[in-house]
UniProtKB/TrEMBL annotation:
Organism of this sequence: Actibacterium naphthalenivorans
Residues annotated as transmembrane: 14-40, 46-68, 80-98, 104-123, 135-162, 168-188, 200-222, 228-249
Full protein name: Probable membrane transporter protein
Keyword annotations: Cell membrane, Membrane, Transmembrane, Transmembrane helix, Transport
Name of a matching Pfam family: TauE
Membrane-protein topology: Multi-pass membrane protein
Keyword presence, Protein biosynthesis: no
Domain of life according to the entry: Bacteria
GO cellular component: plasma membrane
Length: 250
């Protein structure tokens, strides 16, 4: 047995980590967002946030099979790419800060960002800027930096997309495509900066089929007519995850 796999199997709370990832994938499949918002705070109970980010990035490869093909056909692909390129560039400083921060302050930062994002989403925040190329690039760049620092690639883009007046199907597809592709692009950068090591890679690979099952089920039950219900359910699960994952309970 490879040494990295042996170490991965010895991870404390591995079964719970996999169950959390299954839940995160399910919400991502039907709501179109929320996987990292659920997994990162809960996984950080068992492993340092840096490792949780690495595991999430590797396991999210499954979304390229279960979620991306359908979303790519429905998305405004030019808009996705205008956000994706600057996001890829700003991942670098974000990941550097991720590596540099102590565990406890990082966990509080992650929890605070999720709570602020959730409050903005539930209160119906609306953007004031038009979705032109400059705005898309700025949103993408901010998402990449925050995603590199915390693993939360979604909040900035989710708020930007959900607060517009575009059709629900296109908004959801844009979000899914951006988050899935940025998650894939994070992997080589995380590896280059030493966040993804052998054991983390194996942990992510072990989790990938679990995440794929969750996203596939969520994708299968999605019905645009009930988008508001899925969104509210996603908000509820995210709120529960961040409250349980607060360092306050350690």
């Amino acid at each position: 047995m490879p040494e990295g796999l042996a170490l991965a199997l010895q991870t404390e709370g591995l079964v719970l980590l996999l169950l959390v990832l299954l839940l995160a994938g399910l919400v991502y499949g039907f709501a179109g967002f929320g996987a990292a918002l659920i997994f990162i705070p809960l996984a950080s109970i068992f492993v340092p946030p840096q490792l949780a980010v690495g595991i999430m990035a590797v396991s999210a490869l499954g979304s390229t099979v279960t979620v991306l093909p359908r979303a790519w056909r429905q998305a405004d692909r030019a808009r996705v790419l205008w956000m994706l390129v600057p996001a890829f560039l700003t991942l670098v400083p974000g990941i550097w800060l991720l590596r540099s921060m102590e565990v406890l302050p990082l966990r509080w930062l992650i929890s605070g960002l999720i709570l602020l994002s959730l409050a903005a989403m539930t209160l119906g925040w609306r953007r004031s800027m038009a979705p032109n190329r400059a705005a898309l690039a700025a949103v993408g760049g901010a998402a990449g930096f925050i995603g590199g620092l915390t693993g939360l690639t979604g909040p900035v883009v989710i708020l930007f997309n959900l607060s517009g007046d575009e059709p629900v199907v296109i908004t959801r597809a844009n979000t899914l495509c951006f988050l899935t592709l940025l998650g894939v692009l994070m992997i080589p950068q995380l590896a280059a900066q030493g966040v993804i090591t052998g054991p983390v890679l194996w942990q992510g690979l072990l989790a990938t089929p679990v995440y794929m099952v969750g996203t596939a089920i969520g994708q299968a039950v999605f019905n645009p007519a009930y988008q508001s219900v899925y969104r509210l359910l996603g908000y509820g699960v995210i709120a529960g995850a961040v409250l349980v994952g607060l360092p306050l309970w350690d």
